[in-house]
Design goal:
It is a single chain. With 184 residues, the chain is of the alpha+beta class. The protein has two domains: 11-65, Helix-hairpin-Helix base-excision DNA repair enzymes (C-terminal) (Endonuclease Iii, domain 2), CATH 1.10.1670.10; 82-182, Nucleoside Triphosphate Pyrophosphohydrolase. The protein has helices at residues 11-24, 30-44, 62-65, 173-182, and strands at 82-89, 92-93, 96-101, 112-113, 116-117, 127-136, 140-149, 160-163. The structure holds iron/sulfur cluster. Iron/sulfur cluster is lined by residues 1, 44-45, 50-52, 55, 57-58, 61, 63-64, 69.
Length: 184
């Protein structure tokens, strides 16, 4: 009716409905008004069957005018997914791939992964893009840029090793898929 484009379960939606009800409820005969609303919601404007041609509110109804009777109010919160860019190094030595155990309290903590670097680390470095990884988490979408750095040589350590096969290693699924596709 009023075109509130927010999830009907959200507190913001409830607040707006509450404000509208305060504004619109008449000072007198409000029992008749309330019963009218109940009847309208039960018989004319039901969630699955709107009968706009019989509705006394049609002329002022936003949903009717914009043909959004079945879309409004929204059922889910429309949260915009944040996109996060991450940069991973592709470093091979004799057909073995370099992996690093993630120790930051961050995504994929404790799993082996292609070594991650920051965007700043890549300034003034000669590299080429090997491929991209996309993965959706609950609150954001990760866009992984896998890069190859010219003449990069990294020594193995306890948390940074070369592997020929990744089949028995605990890796994040999108990283595992990328390695499987790209490791010759
Ligand atoms: S015009 Fe249609 S959508 Fe609008 S209140 Fe009436 S029945 Fe509901």
């Amino acid at each position: 009716m009023f075109g509130i484009k927010e999830c009907k379960k959200s507190s913001s939606f409830k607040r707006k409905i509450w404000q509208l009800s305060i504004q619109l409820t008449p000072q007198t005969s409000n029992r008749i008004y309330t019963q009218g609303l109940i009847d309208l919601g039960a018989l004319i404007c039901t969630p699955r069957n709107v009968q706009c041609d019989q509705c006394p509110l049609q002329l002022n109804c936003y949903a009717f005018k914009t043909h959004k009777q079945l879309e409004l109010p929204l059922n889910t919160k429309k949260a915009k997914k944040i996109k996060k860019d991450k940069y991973f190094i592709w470093c091979k030595q004799n057909d073995n791939i370099l992996l690093e155990k993630r120790n930051k309290k961050d995504v994929w903590f404790g799993l082996w992964c292609l070594p991650e670097v920051s965007e700043d680390d890549l300034k003034n470095i000669n590299y080429r893009l090997k491929g991209k990884i996309s993965h959706k988490f609950t609150h954001y979408e990760l866009l992984g840029h896998v890069i190859e750095v010219n003449n990069l040589k990294v020594k193995s350590t306890d948390n940074s090793k070369y592997f020929r096969s990744t089949s028995s290693i605990a890796l994040p699924t999108p990283i595992k898929k990328f390695i499987k596709t790209n490791l010759d």
